[in-house]
Amino acid sequence: MPERGLARSLVEAYLYFDLEAQGASREAVVVREEDGWVLRLGDAEVLVPAEAEAAAREQELTFGSGRSELIDPGQWVLVAATYASRALEGGLFFAADPSDAEGFGRVAAGWRFAADAVAQALEFFPEGGAELPLEAFWTEMGRALRESQPDRLSRRKLESDLAFYRQSLDDFRRLHSR
Q1: E strands of the chain, at which residues?
Q2: Among candidates 142, 124, 27, 7, which has minimal Cα distance to 74?
Q3: Mean pLDDT by 10-residue block, N- to C-terminus, for the chain (178 residues)?
Q4: Cα 170 to Cα 167: distance, rounded to the nearest angstrom
Q5: What is the per-residue burial (b if ≥16 Cβ within 10 Å, else e) of 138-173?
Q6: Which of 67, 64, 7, 68 is nearest to 39 (CA)?
């Protein structure tokens, strides 16, 4: 069996499986073990230590604290863009029916997850560094983004994206809170 991956939260573990194959997380089997949860999908296993999940929940960190060992910075940038796109689209539908409480939650979560994913990508920068090191990209998806659109992966761009996503969330809440 392949080596067991290590996630910092259950959300990160599920996201990892979805990045491997779209929708795959729905097929994952979760088993509670003494030291946490193990998610299994085929031959792949990911451990989420109980302490890591508890810390993520306590600190309200969607994907966990520290640097991911499962998802590289290129993937985090793509995840952030996906969530932001969903939030933008959801915002348009919400504007048509601002009484939709579930719609409000989906849009707010989209902006929050987009910001959280960019924050994860920023974890990979060396202290004071403006660019990500080549070895930070270990997945095909991450390397492809680095090769095709390296401008999306600079510290300056990611900090700008993070500020935009956070401001979008704040604006959405301010405009539509009940």
Answers
A1: 5-6, 29-33, 36-41, 44-49
A2: 142
A3: 83 96 89 95 94 96 96 98 97 90 95 98 96 96 97 97 98 88
A4: 5
A5: ebebbeebbeeeeebbebeebeebbeebbebbeebe
A6: 7
